[in-house]
Amino acid sequence: MSIFLTTVPVEEAIRVVRDISPPPDEELVPLESAYNRILLRDITADIDIPGFTRSVVDGYAVHSADTTGAGEAIPVILRLTGRAAMGASVKQPPLPPGSCIYVPTGGEIPDGADAMAMIEYCEMLGDEVLVKRPLAAGENIIFKGEDFRAGERVLERGRRLSPGDIGVLAATGHSMVPVSAAPNVGIISTGNELVPVNEVPTGSRVRDVNTYLCRSFLEQYGARPIQFGIVRDDPESFETALDNALATCDAVLISGGSSKDDRDLTAGMIQSRGEVFVHGISLAPGKPTIIGQANGKPVIGLPGHPASTFIVLLVIARHMILGMTGNTSDSPVVVRGVLSENIPSARGREEYVRVKITGKGIVPLFGKSGLLNTLVKSNGVIRIPAGSEGIETGTEVEVILW
Ligand code: AMP
Ligand code: MG
User: Fold this and answer.
1) How many CB atoms lie within 10 A of CB 166?
2) Radius of gyration of the chain (CA)
3) Pairing of strands 380-384, 350-358
4) What is d(CA 220, CA 236) in angstroms, rounded to the nearest whole number?
5) pTM
6) Which residues form ligand 1's pocket by a CB distance below 6 Å?
């Protein structure tokens, strides 16, 4: 039976993973392709945004002081002296007191004017406009540079670019965007019992789940998965696959064979090409995890049970990908709720319990680590710290969403 005399706490395992993960290479991509990539440099505004003081409504640019006391019954009468043309390249002349000009939404406010009277509260009479509400200075306008000032930092490096970020990049003139190049991460699935997905397993064989689990996880975090297939538990085929992966990838994930049994090959394979730093983490599920370096590249040995593999990807391997992509902003999405059942836990290991969010609260799904069904029945996991003996019914808990 496998023995883990020394397991390291989760935080230490994460520190080791962080230390051995190389920083990303930079790539300049067209703005069109930048969505969801990780920004590698701080971005500053090249110009004031907006570049001119503009209206946020359709209506009349006025001197706010002219509208003091205006009401439905006693409107203020202003002389209409012109219209602002959208996109005009020359500035309007200054607005004399007692007059107004028509400005559509987004149009430029002339000097002197300091508020916009919405068209809904005005009436036109020939070349005069009746304003029926008083306006405060600055009402319904955005000042030049109010959104961003020229030279101001608008986006910080390390963030995953959202549609809103892409809009800001467009406004600030960045047609090419410095992002991290996706690291190539090899995936090797080991096990004599594994068959490809398109085969029906016979006897005690099972389909290779982890290749695809790892693959989609890598894609979710912006790494490029490269599959090295199923490898039998014999040193030659293992070595061939690992050496191929190390030759072409920036990091490698190996599923299976990560325990401490004599038949488990992963640790020895890494050791002979570098160093094993961690073999066994105080994590449940996910104890038989290996963190090492082979030919100078990070290699993580994942437990074979798919549900354990998934937790190790989330809790440990995620940090490798965050490091290798320069991502400093993605943190798991959490929601809060009240626990509907006691969760017992052994002290000394950090435990992740899959849960379902229901109308009656947060319901733990106590699955054996080999079971896949809880992965799809659950919405996420609750983390129980290593020092805790569990969580009682009625406690407010945080669910890390899948
Ligand atoms: P191991 O750590 O190699 O002993 O694997 C532990 C358990 O996980 C065994 O029951 C394996 O059959 C299962 N397992 C290992 N690799 C995979 C995989 N790629 N897909 C599905 N199950 C796996
Ligand atoms: Mg195995």
Assistant:
1) 18
2) 31
3) antiparallel
4) 32
5) 0.91
6) 189, 191, 193-194, 206, 208-210, 255-259, 303-306
